[in-house]
Amino acid sequence: AQSVTQLGSHVSVSEGALVLLRCNYSSSVPPYLFWYVQYPNQGLQLLLKYTTGATLVKGINGFEAEFKKSETSFHLTKPSAHMSDAAEYFCAVKDTGKLIFGQGTTLQVKP
Amino acid sequence: DVKVTQSSRYLVKRTGEKVFLECVQDMDHENMFWYRQDPGLGLRLIYFSYDVKMKEKGDIPEGYSVSREKKERFSLILESASTNQTSMYLCASSLHERNQPQHFGDGTRLSIL
Fold first, then answer.
1. Which of B94, B92, B66 lies closest to B79 in space, CA to CA?
2. A residues 12-51 near B, CB within 8 Å?
């Protein structure tokens, strides 16, 4: 069975600092990977996805993620955090028709 | 843009009531999903549907049922609401192909008193 592990349930950075949210997956087939963001009292919004092709994927709001097969990782980064990035972030892997989600990482951005 | 619309953002019901949560998508997606989200437990899949009149149990189907009579609409039913069903409910839809993402509605925060 496929699974997703997000390292760190809470991450705190200063405004302007690098954001790094970690995601590792297990999959017996080539994975399709996704990052979602959830702002308070809202649904999940797709940030970016990896399906095939280029391993460095760019998403919305300046985020990007790199698929590393050898490390079974799909970490999310942003060079410079903004206050508006404070939210919960979910990594997910596609399993047949379903998404398998990580437990989520809450990003706090300090002024 | 894909639009997934959930009928209510906030809903308050009484224990024992029959509760309907409605979800409509406008992109002709084959797949539709219902999740609940609770602090510390993440997102848990309740039911999903790959086609009209088809349904599959997710990880936590107990106490819930679903209906998909039309392709664009997927209803979640709490047959007899209980306080432990107080939660945030999220609906999602997607195309059938495996490389396609799910698109989520804004959620319904349901309180059972």
1. B66
2. 32, 34, 36, 41-46, 49, 51
